[in-house]
Amino acid sequence: MLKDEVLNYLTTIPKGKVVTYSQIGKDLDTKAYRAIGNILHNNSDPVKYPCFKVVNAKGELAEHFGAEGGILTQRERLINDGVEVIDFRVDLNKYQWKKEKK
Question: Residue 70: which residues within 8 A CB-CB, separation 6 or more?
Answer without folding.
Answer: 63, 64
